[in-house]
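Researcher: Here's the sequence for the chain we discussed earlier.
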Amino acid sequence: MLVMETDKVISALRSKTRREILQILAGEPKTVQEVMESLPQKRVKIKYRESVYKALEKLVDAGLVDKYYEKEKGICYKLSKTRLEIDLSNGVVEYIQ
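Model: Thanks. This is the structure I predict for it:
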């Protein structure tokens, strides 16, 4: 199990937009543009691509999303893991799986 920084994870999950982005990435890896195009289906209104990029980078920083380069598509994002456990008594977040 990988232990992550609790404050970063909780901060990243605080935003409804970032939680919706996690659901979008659950299907398959996507570029910033593909995530942005998927958000209206989730009833999330975002005007600027930069806002999506910043949300994705916050998720990467929290360890919830991986960022990598794919030759055909460019920079892509994918979920790191699909489940985590937050131990409030110890202030620890761990990946399960």
